[in-house]
């Protein structure tokens, strides 16, 4: 019996050693990589006749954390793919969520702060190189969006030239590498036979104009606040919506941060923290406003500050009542048309 145990132990040890040696072999490594790539395949199909929403960024610039990209909400059906804001890091989130970036329909900007648009050129490369887009990516936004877009186009002009010369204009049509812009006013800004998008003015004073958006599809509706204080205008536009993504500011935490910055001899930081306190939505009262507007679920995103730990996140968690919740990057919501169902997938 002892002999048998010894033999089994010896064989197991030899197996482990052989495995370690194999993993160090480049031939074996390449075979494993190829198998993983083959298994990856194409992006999974979206459910039919369903409004799908993916959180591609839930952070604010203040206290940015590695697990949260800056503001970004993706709204899709099997026929549409819109992105509302594209802050730093959010293009990578779209890729991680395996969303079909090559067929991105358009981007809507809520306003022109950098944390809502820094990844615009980044998101266009997979659309152009991977999808072979031959038309510019359309960017809708408030007054000034044309200046932003022409600036990005100029900044990336040399890059586009390199890529077209390297791969050929047939493979990478030059126009596909560019962005185009359209200035919008409040009202219906997009519609077809099944989906409409309505813009409304929010209060991010002194930044103006700043818009929120409502998407309606198959009797389901999603509202994205962008940056705003808690304003009745938004709740009028959001009446009866299934989901409202709202920016949120933990005022008690900001006050402590401001005082701590002053104590530490950092008056510049203290000023910035103090300045942002009155142009985002303070947590208290948000859930009550959502309830009064008949909103199905309030989802807090663009968290100010982006919570570095559970102590800070607790302020956001305690401000909502289930099924309302605090967004995490890559959280996914599915709203089948003509129903009341909301399927939530944790990241
Ligand atoms: Zn802003
Ligand atoms: Zn912002």
Listed once per kind, the bound small molecules are: zinc ion
Work out the number of β strands. Answer: 15
**Could you describe the largest sheet, including whether it forms a barrel?**
8 strands, mixed
Work out the helicity level.
25-40%
Separate helix tally: 11
Total domain count = 1
In the CATH hierarchy, what is the superfamily? Ribonuclease Z/Hydroxyacylglutathione hydrolase-like
CATH topology descriptor = Metallo-beta-lactamase, Chain A
Report the radius of gyration as a whole number of Å: 24 Å
Helix and strand run: HHEEEHEHEHHEEEEEHEHHHEHEEE
> Which CATH-level-2 architecture?
4-Layer Sandwich
Characterize the structure shown.
The protein has 347 residues and is α/β, with parallel strands linked by helices. It has a single domain (43-345), classed as Ribonuclease Z/Hydroxyacylglutathione hydrolase-like (Metallo-beta-lactamase, Chain A, 4-Layer Sandwich), CATH 3.60.15. Helix content is 35%, strand content 23%. The protein is built from 11 helices and 15 strands. The protein has helices spanning 2-24, 26-40, 90-96, 120-130, 145-155, 157-167, 232-237, 251-263, 267-275, 286-292, 310-317; strands spanning 50-57, 72-76, 81-84, 106-108, 137-141, 179-183, 187-191, 195-201, 211-217, 220-224, 243-249, 297-304, 325-326, 332-336, 343-345. It has an 8-stranded mixed sheet with strand order 6-5-4-3-2-1-14-15. Strands 7-8-9-10-11-12-13 form a 7-stranded mixed sheet. A hairpin with a 6-residue loop joins strand 14 (332-336) and strand 15. Bound molecules: zinc ion (2 copies). Residues 111, 113, 204, 207, 227 line the site of one zinc ion (ZN).
């Amino acid at each position: 019996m002892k002999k048998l145990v010894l033999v089994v132990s010896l064989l197991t040890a030899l197996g482990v050693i052989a495995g370690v040696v194999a993993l160090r072999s480049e031939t074996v490594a390449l075979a494993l990589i190829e198998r993983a790539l083959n298994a990856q395949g194409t992006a999974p199909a979206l459910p039919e006749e369903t409004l799908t929403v993916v959180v591609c960024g839930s952070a604010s610039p203040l206290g940015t954390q590695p697990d949260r990209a800056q503001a970004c909400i993706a709204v899709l059906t099997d026929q549409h793919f819109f992105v509302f804001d594209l802050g730093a890091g959010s293009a990578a989130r779209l890729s991680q969520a395996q969303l079909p970036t090559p067929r991105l329909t358009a981007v809507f900007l809520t306003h022109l702060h950098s944390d809502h648009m820094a990844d615009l050129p980044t998101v266009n490369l997979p659309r152009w190189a991977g999808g072979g887009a031959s038309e510019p990516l359309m960017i809708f936004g408030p007054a000034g969006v044309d200046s932003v877009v022409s600036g990005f186009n100029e900044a990336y002009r040399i890059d586009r030239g390199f890529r077209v010369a390297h791969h050929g204009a047939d493979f990478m049509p030059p126009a596909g590498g560019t962005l185009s812009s359209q200035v919008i006013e409040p009202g219906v800004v997009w519609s077809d036979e099944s989906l409409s998008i309505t813009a409304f003015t929010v209060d991010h004073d002194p930044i103006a104009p700043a818009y929120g958006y409502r998407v309606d599809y198959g009797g389901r509706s999603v509202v994205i606040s962008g940056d705003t204080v808690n304003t009745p205008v938004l709740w009028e536009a959001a009446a009866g919506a299934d989901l409202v993504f709202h920016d949120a500011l933990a005022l008690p935490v900001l006050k402590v941060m401001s005082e701590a910055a002053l104590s530490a001899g950092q008056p510049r930081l203290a000023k910035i923290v103090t300045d942002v306190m009155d142009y985002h939505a303070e947590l208290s009262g948000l859930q009550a406003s959502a309830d009064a507007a008949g909103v199905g679920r309030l989802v807090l995103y663009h968290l100010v500050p982006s919570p570095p730990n559970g102590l800070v996140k607790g302020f956001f968690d305690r401000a909502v009542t289930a099924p309302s919740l605090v967004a995490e990057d890559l959280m996914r919501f599915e709203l089948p048309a003509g129903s009341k169902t909301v399927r939530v997938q944790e990241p």
